[in-house]
């Protein structure tokens, strides 16, 4: 059965499965490159990335919310990053119990190197897709997201 004779629901399912496969392939390659080139993991990269966007730091609960993971998942990663002096804990003004975590100078430098490589890797993996195709794909994904809520 060709695509024109296939029910629209089946085509949508096929697109979903292809998107998942592409995402998994790219993520697997990124995980491997981060491990080999930076002795790091994708979750560590994600934490560093979030903290890079919020240079004043984030409370652990805000960091977890931005990453859409539990506090427990973030706590272990942050503990290791603190022990490596890439992240530091700082007191929150007006709240003795609350702490923010933020990048140290070493963390900023380490993340910058990782982010530059990450961008290069993603660019290489998508080299076969033209600018026009990328724009179309972004538009399509935006439209899909609008209907998923």
TrEMBL record:
User: Which InterPro entries does this entry report, sorted A to Z?
Assistant: HTH_MarR-typ, MarR/SlyA-like, WH-like_DNA-bd_sf, WH_DNA-bd_sf
Task: Give me any GO biological process, just one.
Answer: response to stress
Per the database record, which ranges form the HTH marR-type domain?
10-146
Q: Which GO terms describe its molecular function?
A: DNA-binding transcription factor activity
* Taxonomic source organism: Pseudooceanicola lipolyticus
For this protein, the record's SUPFAM superfamilies field holds: Winged helix' DNA-binding domain (SSF46785)
Record-given protein name: MarR family transcriptional regulator
Q: Write one Pfam family the protein is assigned to.
A: MarR_2
